[in-house]
């Protein structure tokens, strides 16, 4: 009998493969490095590896900090003087909270800060990301109260003789000393970083059970490349010391969110709340945290565009990040920098673009639809950022664009040079790549990335062919789940790989941001996403462990051998002079490292400080630094009066062409008697403290 057109079409239709996620069977798991263990045994062993990694890292960082400056034998004033620039500025707020009569008084001092930007009163919690100092200060007050109530012995004090030319000082050590307590909390957090990386590496592969061997490799790789992963051992009070451990926690929550949700299932509300809560904790301590979450948002969009992440799950992730940003904005008392940030613009533009991408994916093959989403998102984010900044009149992060333009072109400004003159904001050092190659972190990490890219490319090609076949048959709707031809790669793997690429670009532009790139590179090297059934995977992991341990032990020994003493008698004399010769309400202006020391050690108001993420403060700092130009003494006097400056701290070393370039210095030397200029020149090493009366 004659067949209808519909019957003929049905008979000619090729059988398309059903797309679903497949789990490796038990035989595959047996060769994955942990298949000979039960799930409980693998989980227990992974937890032991994480605990050991965290404790060893905590002890190592504490030891290096002690070796670096002989911390235990320093007096309190010497310890505070060592924390220069940002280090001392942030610690001064912890000192305020601890020394206030009550915790409520300490919070009030942060909300009404009169020392940081004299003569203005500012909300320090809104401006300076000070929740770590507030929380640690509250913890210390509770601990000190309990120790006093129960009679605990918390510190030992003794006298240190510093030589014939310096008076002896009293030095105290123990957890009852405020700075000891503060630093111990920081290094406990650094231990959580290593523990979190071990857990991430163990669960990074899409398998039913964790792989403890990957956790061991991640720990060895992190410790062997420690100087490339962090600088917490030298600069414990920087914002990244608090924020990066919380980023690792957020990545664990992200991995749980993606694995629980899959491509079609609805994730539990607990997973969404954990994702938002961990992002909030990561945002609060550090103003640069927004760039890491920006890269994460882009990685999630790329995973969605490639078909590894469902529409609903991607939308929930964006809403969770947006919720975290809104809560951070509220907890920072309406910090405009968060609203006008690239992260806010990126999240707001991602939500409508997800709807648009559903239409594009039906009208175009995957080879066109996949790159269309991230390209459109990037363009719309930049336009939305410019629009929000213009609408709100926000210029808090304009110096970031100055830094970027100064790196990509010859254009320079005063503010960009304040950053680019520092090594941390230079381009990525090629020597770091050599060091990473010696421990095989770079080759193994790139090999893992290449494997993921290969699987993704194969998926895109297969999807494009399926689209053409469906288009011929009149059914152009693309499949919605990951096909089974992508073993060892899932939404979490693709998201981590995209983040590695994004962090690599950031580290290439600003070397300070390599703290995002290097740990994630070590994580990729330890995960090694080879198919579980591949018998070469276990020998490859063991080879990587041996190579990393061999070179890493040499790097560890070299880092532990660094030792020194700290002493700065000239700055100490300056502090004593300020304490004895000036009144508590008189203000100081000078270079940012010096003013931070004045605020912390001498407890005097300052007019400029190292926190540079405010347009008004950048303008004020430029005015203060004009004293190192050819500005005359009379012109500087007018500038100082407009800023309500009582004392100017002049560091001769900032005169690049010698003291002759600084006319203020010469005028002060010639006219310090005729003009009412009192100068304390008793300390050499280039420091002159002049009081404009």
TrEMBL record:
Listed Pfam families: Dpy19
Membrane topology: Multi-pass membrane protein
Bilayer-spanning residue ranges: 37-58, 185-204, 270-286, 292-309, 316-333, 339-356, 368-392, 440-462
Biased composition (Basic residues): 1-12
An example molecular function term from Gene Ontology annotations: mannosyltransferase activity
Keyword Cell cycle among UniProt keywords: no
Region feature (Disordered): 1-33
Annotated keywords: Glycosyltransferase, Membrane, Transferase, Transmembrane, Transmembrane helix
Keyword flag Transferase: yes
GO CC list: nuclear inner membrane
InterPro entries: Dpy-19/Dpy-19-like
Annotated Basic and acidic residues bias: 18-28
Subcellular localization: Membrane
Protein family: Belongs to the dpy-19 family.
Protein name according to UniProt: C-mannosyltransferase DPY19L1
Naturally occurring in which organism (per UniProt): Macrostomum lignano
